Known about the structure:
Strand content: 25-35%
Distance between the termini: 70 Å
Shape: globular
Oligomer: single chain
Amino acid sequence: MYKRRKDRKKKLLWIGITIFLLFFVLFYSLTSSKLSFIEMIGKDTATLIQKVVLFPFTALNEEKGKTMTESYTIQKNVNVHLEKEIEELKELLKLNHTLTEYTPINAMVLSRNRSYWFQNITVDKGKKDGVGKDMIVITSDGLIGKVSKTSYLSSEISLITMNDVNYKISVSIAGNKGESFAILNGYEQKKGLLKLTGVDKTAALEIGDTVTTSGLGGMYPRGIYIGKIEKIQEDKYGLSKTVYVKSKQDFNQIHYVTILKEKEK
C-alpha cells in the first residue's frame, strides 16, 4: 500500500513538472523571437507526433499507377476535405516551375493558434530541410508571409495579415496610369482586406489595380503577387490615401505553402 502511494506521488510529481514545462515553453514562445533549446525540442516532438497522426490523411498512395486523385478516392471516406488539399498541392507544384531564382520547399500546415489565427501558422519543414529565418512564403494565390522561427523539423510563418506595426512590406501598385508605391501594414479581418499606407496623394489609382512586392528594402523580391485594389479612401483634407487590397488567398484556409530558398550563386 505504501509503495503504491509512493509511486502515485512520483507520477503526480512528473505530471506537474511536465505541465509546468509546457506552460513555460508556451509563454516563452509568445514573448521571444528566437526558439530556446527546450522550445525547439518541444516543437520538434510535437511535429513528429502530428506527422504520425496525420500520415494516413496526407501520404500519397505508393502503388504504381496510382494518381493523387485515385489515392483520394481510396481515402475519401476518411477525410472529405482531402480532395481540395490535393488540388491545392498540385497548384503549388505547377507554380514551382516559374520560380527560377529560388529553390521551392513545399510544406504542409501543421497547426494554427485560434487566438492568433491571422498572425502565424506552423509548417512541417525546418532547418533539416534548408528552411531559414526570413525566407519568403507563398501559395499559388500569392504572398502569404515569411519565416519567423525555425526548429529542426518545423517552422513558424508570420502572415502578412498580422497587425504588427513593425511588420511592413514595400509594395508596388501597377495600373493603366503608371506605377505607385506604398507600405503594406495592416489587415481588416471583418472585410478580409489588406491595408496599404504611405500612398502618395497624387497617385492615380483605380479599383482593380494590381499590387505586388516592389523589391525595395531587399527582403522581398520584386513582382510577387499580393492582390488587387478593392477600395481607395482619402482623408477629408485630401492629403493622403489609404488603399485596401483583396488577396486571392483565403487566409482562413491555408493547407499547403511554398517556402522560397534563394539559390546559391
